[in-house]
């Protein structure tokens, strides 16, 4: 099956689930993108810093799926913040991908200490106006960073890609996203094996699905777009097969209150990404 879509605040749409690609490199990386598209994924997430844009672009071009039907996302790295540097970085990403446009371009981290994310955002608005980027968004932005972007440019990001998994449910930020019609994308959606805990295993047994499927279904019912990474064709298919069962409100709530915090302490206020 092909994944359903969510509506963005810029009038475009985004598939409801995507393939994360961090660590997918070389021929195996290309093959993983091709197998995901064959399975029905229509959203692929990369970044200049993953050093696999070439593999992602090659996978998209090698797949029999029409390029126009695939939402390719990439991200601006910290060392390229600033107006002109962002425009140059985008050219580099486009050349790596071997594509003539990108569907979604994100600022990877806000880097508040560098204080150039508003300049980068203005460059991204320019790229969208030029048509080489279809939708623009951010990643790892807090409510305060979002407020500043909108206050200074009047342009609301279509997406904020954030750490979101059962250990870190981010309720306050999700409420801010809802208020501004910003679609939440969830990174590390499987929460590093959190699905193997007792509660989620029990819920999985109730629905005759796997713990990973329960966790991904939880994201969907929160209104978020999870981007699970898998190099394995079978697990890619498993992760996409989450549209034929529904969690109860009580199950969603129980998973949301598991808690315990961030996976690797990457606080957007202080995280220094190069
Ligand atoms: N914006 C940002 O700052 C960040 C963005 N990201 C993005 O989010 C994506 C996803 O996050 P990531 O950190 O990769 O973590 P995920 O939550 O996607 O987990 C990936 C791990 O889970 C395994 N896995 C996948 N599916 C299953 C399954 N059904 N059952 C058991 N194990 C499974 C994978 O192994 P295997 O491959 O062997 O299946 C891999 O080890 C990244 O790839 C990247 O695109 C990630 C971190 C930060
Ligand atoms: O997006 C990812 O997968 C990351 O790990 C990023 O957080 C990024 O590559 C980074 O911050 C490295 O320090």
From TrEMBL:
InterPro entries named among the record's database cross-references: AKR, Aldo/ket_reductase_CS, NAD(P)_OxRdtase_dom_sf, NADP_OxRdtase_dom
Molecular function terms in GO for this entry?
A: oxidoreductase activity, acting on the CH-OH group of donors, NAD or NADP as acceptor
Task: Write the record's keywords in alphabetical order, separated by commas.
Answer: NADP, Oxidoreductase
Pfam families (UniProt xref): Aldo_ket_red
Which family, according to the similarity comment?
Answer: Belongs to the aldo/keto reductase family.
Gene3D superfamilies per the record? Answer: NADP-dependent oxidoreductase domain
Entry protein name: NADP-dependent oxidoreductase domain-containing protein
Question: What are the positions of the active site?
Answer: 50 (proton donor)
Annotated organism of origin: Marisediminicola antarctica
**Site description Lowers pKa of active site Tyr, residues in chain:** 75
């Amino acid at each position: 099956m092909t994944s359903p879509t969510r509506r963005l605040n810029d009038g475009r749409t985004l598939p409801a689930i995507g393939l994360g690609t961090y660590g997918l490199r070389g021929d195996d990386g290309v093959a993983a993108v091709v197998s995901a598209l064959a399975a029905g994924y229509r959203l692929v997430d990369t970044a200049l810093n993953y050093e696999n844009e070439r593999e992602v672009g090659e996978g998209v071009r090698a797949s029999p799926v029409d390029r126009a039907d695939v939402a390719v996302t990439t991200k601006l790295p910290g060392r390229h913040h600033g107006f002109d540097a962002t425009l140059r970085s985008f050219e580099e990403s486009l050349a790596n991908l071997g594509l003539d446009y990108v569907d979604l371009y994100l600022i990877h981290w806000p880097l508040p200490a560098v204080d150039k994310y508003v300049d980068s955002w203005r460059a991204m608005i320019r790229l969208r106006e030029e048509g080489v980027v279809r939708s623009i968004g951010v990643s790892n932005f807090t409510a305060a960073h979002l407020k500043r972007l909108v206050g200074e440019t009047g342009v609301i990001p279509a997406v904020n890609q954030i750490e979101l998994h059962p250990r870190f449910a981010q309720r306050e930020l999700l409420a801010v996203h809802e208020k501004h019609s910003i679609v939440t994308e969830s990174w590390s959606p499987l929460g590093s094996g959190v699905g193997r805990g007792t509660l989620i295993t029990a819920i999985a047994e109730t629905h005759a699905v796997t713990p990973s499927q329960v966790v991904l279904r939880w994201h969907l019912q929160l209104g978020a777009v999870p981007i699970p990474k898998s190099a394995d064709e079978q697990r890619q298919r498993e992760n996409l097969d989450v549209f034929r069962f529904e969690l109860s409100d009580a199950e969603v709530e129980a998973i949301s209150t598991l808690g315990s915090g961030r996976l690797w302490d990457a606080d957007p206020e202080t995280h220094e990404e190069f």
